[in-house]
Design goal:
By secondary structure, the protein is of the alpha/beta class. The protein has a domain of 254 residues: 3-Layer(aba) Sandwich (Aspartate Aminotransferase, domain 2). It contains 16 helices and twelve strands. Strands 1-7-6-5-4-2-3 form a seven-stranded mixed β-sheet, with helices on both faces. The radius of gyration is 24 Å and the shape is globular. The two termini are 37 Å apart. Bound molecules: pyridoxal-5'-phosphate. The site of pyridoxal-5'-phosphate (PLP) has 14 residues, from helix 6.
């Protein structure tokens, strides 16, 4: 496959000078007089350029980029699936996009019904009893879930004692960050030699100081924690709670659920499992689901249905942790997730799960002779391989793939495998694309070192110095 990304020396929007420029009107003096002098600012200095220059600017930027509409985007753990266009169309309908967030409940019954239905769908899919759609990302869902655990422990007089959250070493970095931000001490336990939770390590770490054990299942190695009910017994037996990081829900949806496995709190990544274009930090939505005994702690508002059939926003939960986001959460992502679930139905969602797992295992079969795939070859939604046996660096291979017009997988995560690539194809890739990807990766492993290090050459930027880029950020706007 030949691929050449467009290259433009593109200025910032504010540096473009249009002949036919749009002029931002001067402030109306009468209106300005209504604003107290001490809070008036000098003006926003908005770019004054013609529409055609704006559209061309962003189109040129998009040509120097890669997205899910171009091809496979196998970033493990991120679940970058193709986003169906009908969901975007629904989210852009002006009946939704033009609704003012402070309009009264009586005027947005349709929107509230959608939120109410989504809460129910998520409860049903996860076997949880109540859901709040408030959090704006997976990480914020985690933080919210841990705040719920915190408030619950406080309500039963255990918070003073239970200050620790146990997390396995394969966890996503947001897990320990959320636990620490919510005021807990993080206790990391090593994985066992088969890559799953080490029950002995868990037993020795757990105590009456433990607030919760936080895991994802399948874990970040794509392995299903088969002893999850035993884990739940150990955790609950010590009086702690079990937290489910739902970022990997795409691997089990319709087949099993966190509720059935014994989890007490879960967050969903709507932008992953239920398709919303995301990346580079947004947009996202991380609803939280809980078992009944925790429902009074959920963030508000939750959408409820009155006896007369009307929907309303309930801000009055007895022990709520309060608000964690402005208004009602990320409404456009909520709409897309609702549309996605409604379109696929339970059987369609289950079929997607099966296809996602099948695609991953197809890649395992295609790659297992050329790469070492630790912890067995039966995976769920993603696989982690190491490039160590090829003598090549995962980073160099990733750059080689990009040069062929294939988005690279996640590299160097999880941390318990060296020189690793974490590959999650999702259900939205054809067998042909899986073969193209596998062939490209195998071809990367056979390149000589010198040529591998020269990539990328076909992109709008060459190899960047990643350490310098992270340490010496030069932002301008
Ligand atoms: C396993 C896992 N947990 C949590 C998160 C955090 O989700 P978000 O990026 O929506 O904040 C991610 C994101 O990649 C993840 O892969």
């Amino acid at each position: 496959m030949t691929y050449h990304q467009a290259t433009y020396d593109e200025p910032l929007l504010s540096e473009i000078h249009s002949d036919n420029r749009y002029k931002v009107p001067d402030a109306d003096e009468n209106l300005m007089a209504l604003i107290p002098e001490e809070i008036r600012s000098a003006g926003a200095k908005l770019p004054e350029i013609a529409e055609y220059d704006v559209v061309r600017h962003f189109t040129r930027l998009s040509q120097m980029n890669y997205g899910v509409d171009l091809g496979i985007y196998p970033l493990g753990s991120c679940t970058m699936k193709f986003n169906p266009k009908f969901a975007d169309r629904i989210a852009s309908m002006e009946e939704f996009s033009e609704t003012h967030p402070l309009i009264g409940d009586q005027n947005i019954q349709g929107s509230l019904k959608i939120m109410y239905d989504l809460q129910r769908y998520l409860s049903e899919l996860s076997d949880m009893d109540a859901v709040s759609l408030q959090p704006l990302a997976g990480a914020q869902g985690e933080y919210t879930g841990i705040l719920i655990i915190r408030k619950y422990l406080e309500s039963i007089g255990e918070l003073e004692k239970r200050k620790e959250i146990i997390i396995p070493d394969s966890a996503h970095g947001t897990n320990p960050a959320s636990a620490a931000m919510a005021g807990f001490d993080v206790v990391e336990i090593p994985s066992s030699s088969d890559g799953t939770v080490d029950l002995e390590a868990l037993k020795s770490a757990i105590s009456d100081r433990t607030a919760a054990f936080m895991i994802t299942n399948p874990n970040t190695l794509g392995l299903f924690e088969k002893r999850i009910t035993e884990i739940a017994e150990i955790v609950h037996g010590s009086g702690a709670l079990l937290y489910y990081d739902g970022a990997n829900f795409n691997a089990i949806m319709g087949i099993t659920s966190p509720g059935l496995m014994g989890f007490d709190v879960v967050h969903f990544n709507l932008h992953k499992t239920f398709a919303t274009p995301h990346g580079g930090g947004g947009p996202g939505s991380g609803p939280v689901g809980v078992k009944k005994f925790l429902s009074e702690f959920l963030p508000v508002p939750v959408v409820e249905k009155a006896d007369d059939g009307r929907y309303f926003l309930n801000y009055d939960l007895r022990n709520t942790i309060g608000k964690v986001a402005p208004y009602y959460g990320a409404f456009s992502t909520i709409l897309r997730a609702w549309a996605y679930i409604t379109y696929h139905g339970y059987d369609g969602l289950t079929e997607n799960t099966v296809r996602a797992v099948l695609n991953t295992n197809y890649l395992v079969k295609r790659l297992q002779n050329d790469f070492k795939i630790p912890f067995g070859t039966l995976k769920k939604h993603e696989l982690v391989l190491t490039t160590e046996n090829t003598g090549k660096r995962a980073l160099d291979m990733a750059k080689f793939l990009i040069d062929l017009g294939i988005h690279a997988p996640t590299v160097y995560f999880p941390l318990n495998v060296h020189e690793d690539m974490m590959i999650e194809p999702t259900e939205t890739v054809s067998r042909r694309d899986l073969d193209v990807f596998a062939d490209a990766l195998i071809s990367a492993s056979k390149q000589d070192d010198e040529s591998l290090k020269s990539h990328p050459v076909n992109l709008s930027v060459g190899r960047i110095d990643e350490v310098k880029a992270a340490r010496q950020l030069k932002l301008h706007w």
